[in-house]
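QUALITY CONTROL LOG
STEP: pairwise intake check
CHECKER ROLE: data steward
CRITERIA: each record must contain a sequence immediately followed by its structure tokens, with no blank fields

ENTRY 1 OF 2
RESULT FIELD BELOW
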Amino acid sequence: MTTTTKPNTGFWIIAVIALLWNLMGVFQFLSATVLLDTLRETATAEQMAVMDTLPSWYAIVFAIAVFTGLLGAILLLVRRKIAVPVFLISLVAVLIQMGYWVFATEIMDVEGPTAIIMPLIVITIAIFLYYYSKGAAQKGWLR
């Protein structure tokens, strides 16, 4: 039987922020798929042209990225070690999704250099959450 230690306050703050961040990701996914008509009202024609050219597998990878991220955050909150591989799956999906978005679409032509800011933030947070959960498991905070 492995022993767990009580996590510090920072752990709980990060876990709650991770949950909120990933809930926003789920909302973004739903906006880009289920609520696409609402998105059309706010996006430019050029942005929608980029969205309309995305391959069908892109939505699947997007779903994997956000829903495994959400599951990982929930598992982190309930202090389960399985959060580590779940966050890894989310990270891999994020890298595929954002890599395609930045390098295989015309988004850089449509939005300019600022188009890379949000993908970099998403990738950075996904990397952080994976390594943070891994560290939490090593410290015995996860069961």
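ENTRY 2 OF 2
RESULT FIELD BELOW
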Amino acid sequence: MTQIFTSFLAALMALSTLLAVPALAAGSSDGSSTLSSASYDEAKAMVDEGNFVAALPNLIALTKADAKNADAWNLLGFTYRKLGQLADSDAAYLAVLSINPDHLGALEYQGELFITTGKLDEAKANLAKLKALCGTCEQAQDLEAALKAAGA
């Protein structure tokens, strides 16, 4: 009976841990989101559909509600960049990296912003940091490909 109870308790704890972790796209998250995953997930879905204009007010609200949500800041920076609001994008990536200096998605996206703004040395520095953190992870590969496409 004790073994059954122990097994049940272990399974229950594992299930509660899985349910507490938000489902997020690879490269976009560091797991710092403390808001309802539905709010983040709704904004992420809009961004994934390319509906940046609709996602923007939701992301601004998310970052105001939880200023330490690195994932929301990262998605906000990405959205601003896609809308051509590069100064706002830069500020959002700086916010992410002040919360989590090793946020893989932010390092990739900020590197892509650096390429867009002609700051190739800064983009290469982000790539070097990514490689140190994760080797040949998707974020490092994507930034490296973007640098090569830019002729760097």
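INTAKE CHECK: passed for both entries
DESCRIPTIVE NOTE, ENTRY 2: Residues 106 and 137 are 14 Å apart (CA to CA).
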